[in-house]
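To the structural biology subgroup,

Please find below the input and predicted structure for Short-chain dehydrogenase, which we are adding to the shared reference set this quarter. The sequence is reproduced verbatim from the submission form. If anyone notices a discrepancy with their own records, reply to this email rather than editing the shared folder directly, so we keep one authoritative version.
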Amino acid sequence: MKTWFITGTSSGFGRRMTELLLERGDRVAATLRNPVRLDDLAARHGDRLWRAELDVTDTAHMRKVVDSAFAELGRIDVVVSNAGYGLIGLAEELTDEQIQRQIDTNVIAPIQLARAVTPHLRAQGGGNLLQTSSMGGHIAFPAMSLYHTSKWGIEGFFEAYALETEPFGIHTTLIEPGMVATDFYGAADITPSELPAYAGTQAADFTHGKNSVPLEAMPGDPRKVAEAMIRIGDLKEPPRRQLLGSDAYSLVHDALTARLESAEAQREIAFSTDRDDFTPPSV
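Predicted structure (tokenized):
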């Protein structure tokens, strides 16, 4: 039996992972804004479900919840930082409050969770930390600038954090799904464009739902994504990044290939800015 700590368990991947883990006999420390939403699971699985109310943007309370979970449950094998949401709207039209909430929830909160669990994981000799990201941590679509900001930002944090904590047996994985048939768009904060200057543009159409993809056309299966995340959490040497979905694989593969080709085209100018007495590494 393993013990998992998961944020954002009221719905989506967090809820499905909690269900699957309890069904296989594991123990789950589930955090969410309204713990009564897991009453049905508590009735079926008893004390293998540990619940705590948590707004991930409340850093002080998050630290208390993390400390309590480790104190009461002992070893926690896998931490899943899953809470987050989407923000859709043109950068020019988003409010200051929307921008702050997106960064607080999708960037600051995961950083603070990682910081809170680090001393506990180090003390027990390690553990796995899964951070839900997105294929949107590699690519970008119009009308999602702040969402992409949050995903590119958290990926940068975990690139460095992984190097810092690896000596302690802490393994991190960025989970990068493509489009999955969940209520992501239904739960997203969407600001329809009202500025005449953007009328008829792809970005404005997207904010009005004209370019949205219907659930039945999305390739990702929510249950299969949750199952894959559990398999990754079980690994002794998990990957630093894991794409999930054929669309995520294809789009990210194409984006990285194009980025590498662009870098190759910049080689001459890049090398030309070195000091005359510097010998560059062979590339």
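Summary notes: The beta strands are 3-7, 27-32, 49-53, 78-81, 87-88, 127-132, 170-177, 189-190, 241-244. The two ends are 47 Å apart (CA to CA).

Regards,
Lab coordination
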